[in-house]
Amino acid sequence: MLKVSHICKTIENKNILSNISFILNDGDVLGIAGPNGAGKSTLISILSTIIKPTKGNISYYVNGDLYKGEKKDIIGYVPQDIALYEELNIKDNLLLFGSTISNDTRIVLNKATNIARALGLMDEFKTRVSKLSGGTKRRVNIAIGLIRDPKFVFMDEPVVGVDYRARRDIEYIISNMRSQGKIITITSHLIEFLENTCNKLLILENGKQKYFGDFDDEVKSKI
Fold first, then answer.
1. What is the pLDDT of residue 163?
2. Does 61 share its domain with 38?
3. 136-194 pLDDT per residue, tens
C-alpha cells in the first residue's frame, strides 16, 4: 500500500502542490493527469523520494507492514529526461546502473537481460547508446528504472517520443507488473496510454487535487 497524506510543496513562496492525499493498494496503477504546470512531475518526484515535500507524509507498506528500510530498495524511478551513458552500449548501461543490486555480476546480468528482453531491447543489447533512436533510448531509460524489480514504480512521461510498438511493449510491462501486485504511478499527456494502463486517476489543476478515484468512462470528461 502507498499512503499519501496532505502533501504540499512550496518553492520560492509559490505553492506548487497543495494538500494532495490518496491511497493506493497493491496492484493499483495510478495515472496523474493535468495541464502543463499542474504539478505532475513535482508530485512524482516527491513520491519517488527525489525531492522532499514542504509538508505532509508518504508511507510505503510492503506485505502489509510499514517499510522502514532504505527506500531505494523498493522504489523504481523512470525520469522524463533520458540519462544514459552515450559511449556505452545497452548492456553496459544496465550493468552499471544495476551494480548496487548485487556484487555478483551474473545476478545483475540476468536481471538486465530479463528486462531488456521484456522491453524488446535484445537485438540492440550490445549497440552503443549514441547510435540508438530516441524511442529506443526511452525504453533503455525505463529498463534502468525497473532493473531492481521494485515494489513501487514511478514513471514520469515514459512514452514521450516512442513509436506505437514501443508504447505497446511498455503497456505490456506495466500490465505484467500490476499482475505481480506492484504499485505504479505514471504521468502522461497521452490520455489513451493512461486509459490502457491505469485503474486509478488523479487529476491536478494548479497544484490542487481536482479528482482522485477510479479511471472509468464517467471521469474522462473531467480530464
1. 84
2. yes
3. 898 899 999 999 889 999 999 999 878 888 888 889 889 999 999 999 999 999 999 99
What is the residue range of 94's domain? 85-149
CA–CA separation, 138 vs 121, rounded Å? 11
Phi-psi category of 205—alpha, beta or left, where left has phi over 0 and alpha has psi -120 to 50? beta
Helices 105-118 & 164-179, crossing angle to 10 degrees?
Answer: 120
Residues 117 and 130 in one domain: yes
For 184: left if phi > 0, alpha if psi spans -120 to 50, otherwise beta; the answer is: beta
Helix or strand (DSSP H, E) at 136: helix 134-146
Residue 217 lies in a domain: yes
Q: Is the pLDDT of residue 34 over 90?
A: yes
State how far the Cα of 52 lies from the Cα of 126, in Å rounded to an integer: 37
Query: How much is the pTM?
Result: 0.91
Residue corresponding to grid cell 543489447: 125
Q: CATH number of the domain that 49 lies in?
A: 3.40.50.300
Residue among 154, 83, 171, 90 nearest 128 (CA): 90
Q: What confidence tier does 41 reach under pLDDT thresholds 50, 70, 90?
A: very high
How much of the chain, in percent, has pLDDT values that exceed 90?
77
